[in-house]
Amino acid sequence: YLTQFPFQAEILSWNRLLCEDVEASLDAGVSYIHVSVPTSDLMLEQKMNKTKEWIIPQMEKVFSFALDHDAKLSFGAEDASRTDIPFLKEVFRVAQELGAGRVRFADTLGIMTPSSVAQTIVYLKENLTIPIDFHGHNDFGLATANALSAWENGAQVISCSILGLGERAGNTSLEEIAGILQYLRKDIQGFDFVVLKKLCDTVASLLNSPIPERKPIVGDKIFSHESGIHVDGLLKESSTYELFPPEWLGGERKLV
């Protein structure tokens, strides 16, 4: 159904490392295929009843099937942050050799810190020429910080979601990481935050889950000023306490 709309963005489907999943995506009209598999011993043994030795032959089988059908491929390692890193490096190298256009590192339980993300991304990039995608979870409130660290250390793709929606404590917030990359680092330009704010409001309304008033970037009170010292400076020069005009984000200044 979604493949019939004239989106500017590509639609990428998530699949298990199984030919039947890839076939279902192709039948649905999706040509950009992401295949994912757990790579940690814990998940392989306890969830999949498999061993590490199963992964690469299965990759060869599934990649061959997808590429024979002219699919564009992305490969993801679930629970990468609890995987033996030299083994993961080899799996990513094989994925690149087999034809993947990018690889995804998933911090599935949100256990990493910005420093450990930096070390890991730098190490994994040594043998790769294709982009690394960082997929973070927010179990310890570090999803955005970890995504930024991944970006600063060579990841070229960040998995994120509107309002950080996702399993358990959620994922990297689209509005937060986009705001950082556009307004602080100036690595991207042209992201329309007025439209994004409307999108976030729509999603929150559909889910019947109000956006916290002080949610970074899209909260209704992020341009509210109450302290006398702040208000005094703001009235003299708005840039003293506002990095950019509220209108840029579809917001409104409020003096309490």
CATH architecture of the domain at 2-159: Alpha-Beta Barrel
Shape: elongated
Question: Taking Cα atoms only, what radius of gyration do you get, to the nearest Å?
Answer: 21 Å
The CATH superfamily label of the domain at 2-159 reads Aldolase class I
Give the N-to-C terminal Cα separation.
Answer: 47 Å
| Strand composition percent | 5-15%
EC number: 2.3.3.13
Protein name: 2-isopropylmalate synthase
Organism: termite gut metagenome
InterPro entries: AIPM/Hcit_synth_CS, Aldolase_TIM, LeuA/HCS_post-cat, PYR_CT
Description:
The structure is a single chain. Helix 9 (228-236) links the parallel strand 7 (224-225) and strand 8 (254-255). The chain has helices at 19-27, 41-48, 52-68, 85-98, 114-124, 143-152, 174-184, 193-206, 228-236, and strands at residues 12-16, 32-38, 72-78, 102-107, 132-136, 157-159, 224-225, 254-255. It has a six-stranded parallel sheet with strand order 1-2-3-4-5-6. Strands 7-8 form a two-stranded parallel sheet. The chain contains nine helices and eight strands. The longest helix is centred in the first third of the chain and has 17 residues, at 52-68. Helix 3 packs parallel to helix 4 (85-98) and helix 5 packs parallel to helix 6. Helix content is 40%, strand content 14%. The model has no long low-confidence stretch (mean pLDDT 95). By secondary structure, it is an alpha/beta fold. The chain has a domain at 2-159: Alpha-Beta Barrel (TIM Barrel).
